[in-house]
Amino acid sequence: DxxxxxxxxxxxxxxxxxxxDFDSEPTGVKQKLVAEAAGLVGRxxxxxxxxxxxxxxxxxxxxPSASGPVTEKIKELKRGVQFVxxxxxxxxxxxNKKGIYTVExxxxxxxxxxxxxxxxxxxxxxxxxxxxxxxxTIMATGESRYGRRRVFEIVVTDSTGLxxxxxxxxxxxxxxxxxxxxxxxxxxxxSAWGRQVxxxxxxxxxxxxxxxxxxxxxETADESTGLxxxxxQLERMHQLSIRKVVLGALKTHSSNIVSAVPEAVAKRHGLxxxxxxxxxxxxxxAKGEAAVKSAKRSLAFDELFLLEIGLALKRQGVKRSAGIExxxxxxxxxxxxxxxxxxxxxxxxxxxxxxxxxxxxxxxAPHPMNRLLQGDVGSGKTVVSLIAALVAVGAxxxxxxxxxxxxxxxxxxxxxxxxxxxxxLKTALLTSGIPKKKKDSLLxxxxxxxxDIVVGTHALIQKGVEFDSLALVVIDEQHRFGVMQxxxxxxxxxxxxxxxxxxxxxxIMTATPIPRTLTMTLFSDIEVSIxxxxxxxxxxxxxxxLREKDRERAYDIIRENLKKGSQAYVVCPLVEESExxxxxxxxxxxxxxDVLFGGFNVGLIHGRLKSAEKEAVMASFKAxxxxxxxxxxxxxxxxxVPNATVMLIEHAERFGLAQLHQLRGRVGRGSGKSxxxxxxxxxxxxxxxxRLKVLEATEDGFKIAEEDLAIRGPGDFIxxxxxxxxxxxxxxxxxxxxxxxxxxxEAVAHLxxxxxxxxxxxxxxxxxxxARWKERLELAEIG
Length: 783
Ligand code: ADP
Ligand code: MG
What we know:
By secondary structure, this protein is an alpha/beta fold. The strands form 5 sheets. It has a 7-stranded parallel beta sheet, with helices on both faces. A 6-stranded parallel beta sheet has the order 18-23-22-19-21-20, sandwiched between helices. It has a 5-stranded mixed beta barrel with strand order 2-3-4-6-5. Helix 1 (6-18) packs antiparallel against helix 2 (27-46). It is globular, with a radius of gyration of 29 Å. The structure holds adenosine-5'-diphosphate and magnesium ion (MG). Magnesium ion binds next to helix 13.
């Protein structure tokens, strides 16, 4: 009589009809029907019912599930950051840019590391790489120039020696606060430039002999006792201000933090409640690293537990949806594919053929494909995806290929065009770098279906990009993308007459192999294809770990190769806190190498260059006009320049194994013998060395991934969004496969006793799950 929503009525109808022929169905179908019914029941229980406007005689009115205090608390945490004390519109924008929108996001903005500022040194005792405090007097301040960049410098002394402090990006107004002949407490990381010790972007504050501290900068943490959290850089924001804001959020909202992990479970695994865990992580004080670690473990468990509950619920209710059916047998498809094969300068490997078969079978099915293609660096995934694209195009649809960097997108479009142009197809490149006018006409032809294959970057998912008939989406180097980005592309499927959307087939590719152990746990609803051989004739790449004292030898090796007409890369690591520091680092390296490699052309590429500039540098490198390319990790994925035979990786100890393996994949692509030099700075942990040894020993990406997993845990795989699961806020920084397993076991056990989360104990889980994972869990299937 209208008192129930139509949703509910249709679900009830469905439920009723589900079992009409139940008895005569085979077991498999019966199982599916029961699962579907269970899903419906679950949804029914979650659908609020609109009560009729007081209608006398209405027999029974189902009340919407009461929203209890938990819901209220969660709502508070979902408030925008602008409600946190000290956050104005400008800061709000900065935080938003970093993906921090709510109070909760701010709580999950976990420090990347901690500093122990109680460690003091004399200048004479400073050791490179150490982070320490120094008390010293300013002797001189001034500006100097490094290339085109202005650098602010201060020289200080404590009578044992001189120390130079440098700022690459500074406000003159701010710098003028530092006064000559005054004594300061300085904290920073020691670097060396020749024989001169220096600190880049140190923290300074006036030092008071009496020990009375400068209150204005010292409100948020006691620097003399215990650990001080360091957060990932937020534009130019000072660490102190970041700390203040995070602690402000923690202070006003700690009573709203809800722990959803049942108490018995927490006890079994020695977990802290969520509130205490956040407090420890942001304000560890004198409690020490071990306490912080246990707090992080609790945060991670909470996240993993909810994830596993969500996944299990999803499995209960999953039903395969309708998709585009692409026949691989169509004459046009066959024609295009064989024309391409004739043009290829090589034959596909058996492995490529077999994954192609799997992909085609998926594309031919009336459901959306959801397939992950794993294949080591250089195994030839691009050509496989191109053939998949031809299947879509041959059947009269469009295909899109998305790559994480402009460099890679451009490279793909060049390679693909080379083939497709002669097949009479139209391939276009779409990046955010192309001029507006050109872009508008390009968008129009994509929309009208004139373009068959669109290759692009994130620009593909922006508003205004509408396809005529998108049937296949390829995502290259998928670990570089977030789940949301992939979901956006999926939404660009084909609109049907009845208003529903036919999602495109998805082929996601990665060269960072995901260990089986993790695939089993995490990829519950995605198919996996693996290319497990390299094209014939590849020479193995020799890998060598070198120490700082071997630097000259490394340069000699590069020089020898350059003299033979080969090319080389020098890669500088990502500096996590700050892009500025990284930039300073590559520029310095470039200047040094310009001098050392006089007579050769040294190029520079990094993320801050405009896209046209990047393109120009890559084009010069490809054409051999640049001999030696100094780069940040922007060249990590996909870049294919076969004439490059040497790669020198600075600070190799700072990279993950999988990433090093990716980088190394940039060499050994041609017929020349290649070498990868890992220049590791001395570190006190032998672990680092052992880790790097793995790379020396093997080129098998799967072995390396397993080792990485054993050494660092699953954090990286989950954290780099490998899994295609909801983006983890926290587990990213944690590596512990055991924890993931326990969380899964506990989640499964919990659902066994309470499959629809109906018990009182489950109420909190349900609330938190709904709030935290709702949209995200819907995305999990996208992979
Ligand atoms: P990745 O899997 O790392 O993306 P690419 O698709 O870039 O690898 O392929 C690496 C190189 O190998 C390319 O130059 C490509 O042309 C070449 N290649 C691909 N398949 C074969 C094959 N079957 N035989 C020989 N070379 C191949
Ligand atoms: Mg590739």
